[in-house]
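dumping this here before i forget
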Amino acid sequence: MTDLFEAEATTTTTSLDLRRLQRQQRRAKRRKWALVLIAVGLVLVALGASFSYNFVQESFHKEDVALADYDGLGQGAIQIEIKPGDTGAMIAQTLYEHDVVASVEAFTKVYSDSTDARSIKPGFYFMQRRMKAEYALALLLDPNNRDLRKINVPEGKTLPFYYQKIADLTGASLDEVEAAAADTDKLGLPAEAGGNLEGWLFPATYEFNPGVTPTAVMQAMVKKTIDVLDAQGVAPADRERILTVASLVEQEAKLADDRPLIAGVIYNRLSQDWKLELDSTVKYVSPDTEGAFVTQDEKAIDSPYNTYLYAGLPPAPISGAGEASISAAVSPAQHDYMFFVTVNLQTGETAYAATFAEHQKNVQALQAWIQANVGSQE
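structure:
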C-alpha cells in the first residue's frame, strides 16, 4: 500500500517537472526570437538612417551646385557660338566651358524659368567671363549683342556694285569675289540664267555670321531670288524673261504706281514687235557717261542691249530688281499705252501715251520742265 502511494507521488512530481521544463523552453525560444527581431530591427534602423543621411547630404550637395553662380556682369570679353538646334542644356554647357557662368545648373535654371529663352537664335555672341547666369541669358536675348556681318544692297544695282559690297563684307579682294562668282554651279544659279549672274543676286539686307565667304553670300542672294520668283508663281522657264522685264521696270520707274504701268508699255511694244527704245538699256553698256539721257552717239552703240537698235528684250537683266518690280513684270497693268516719259525729274512724275503725237506733247512737257529747272540739255 505504501509502495502504491509512493509510486503515485513520484509520477505526479515528474509530470509537474516536465511541464515546468516545457514552459521554460518555450520562454527561452520566445526570448531568442525576440532578440533576433530586435537585432533585425536595429539593422533596418541603421540602414534607414544611413540612407536618409546620404539622401539629405546629396540633396544639400545638389542644392549647393545649383546655387553656384557668379555675381555681377563679369569682365573679360569673349565670343561664344550658339549652334542651330542647341538646347538650353547645351547652351549652358557651352557657357560653362568658357567660364561665362559658374555652373551648368545655374544657367539651366534661369533658362527654364524664362518664357523668352527659347527665342535665342543661333550665331556668335559677345559675352563676359564670370557673369551671373541671368545676365548671361539677357545678353543672349539681346539682338544687338550678336556678332553679325550685314550687307544691304538696294534695288537697281549691277554686278560691280554687288562685288564691291561683298568684298567689303567678307574682307576678300575683288579678284577673289569675281572668282567665286565665276563658279555659278556652286552658287546654285539655275540653268535658265545661262551662266549670267546679273539680275540673280536679289537686292535686300542680309545677315551673316563672322567668317562668311563670298560664295556663301552669293548663294544666299541667288536662293532669295528663286524664292521670290517661286512665291510669284513664275515657272522656271519664264524666270529669266521675268527678271529681265523687272530689271527694266526697276531702272525706268520713279514711283511705285508707275511700275505696273511701265511693265504694261514694255509688253505692249513687244507684242507689236516695236523696239523698246529704253535709255536704261543703253546706259547698261555705257555706264560711265554723264547725264540722265543717252546721247546720239550712245544710241549708235552696237550691242544686243541697245534697244534703240535691236527689237525685243535685251539678252539678260540689266540690274537687280526688287520684289515690287518683279510683281509688276508678272502682273502688268492692262492698257493701250505705247509710250512713257518722265515729265518731272524731281518728283518722278511720268506721262503715258497711246500714240506718237500724244507722246510728243509729253516730251515737250519734259523739255519745258528742263528749261525751267535745269537749263538747256542735249
